[in-house]
Design brief:
Elements lengths: L1 H43 L4 E12 L3 E12 L2 E12 L5 E8 L2
Antiparallel strand pairs: 1-2, 2-3, 3-4
């Protein structure tokens, strides 16, 4: 009986550890590009505060990846939205182009 309980404890303990590591790796890489997009947006609107951010889409080709984010900003008493598009090299992560366009 003790061996059976020990085996169940080891089995469930290992399963929980393996499952918990998978989402963290993806979340870190996703958050990094979102942080870059926020930094580039703050260059254009330095007095603004980011209220909300949302990833709109991303497209990956052989050597280039494009990601687009929508940010709701507040500057003074005015709220407005901008779209920030980042184009970068898929292999090296070098940023090729950044576009910050206000929502119409």
């Amino acid at each position: 009986m003790k061996k059976w309980m020990f085996l169940l404890t080891v089995l469930f303990g290992l399963t929980a550890v393996q499952v918990s590591f998978t989402p963290d790796v993806h979340a870190v890489s996703q958050k990094t590009w979102e942080d870059v997009a926020v930094k580039e947006t703050k260059k254009r609107y330095p007095l603004s505060q980011v209220l909300f951010s949302q990833k709109i889409w991303d497209k990956k080709k052989k050597d280039i990846t494009v990601k687009q984010y929508r940010f709701t900003l507040r500057e003074g008493m005015q709220d407005f939205a901008v779209y920030t598009t980042i184009t970068f090299d898929s292999e090296t992560g070098e940023i090729k182009k950044v576009q910050v366009i206000p929502e119409a």
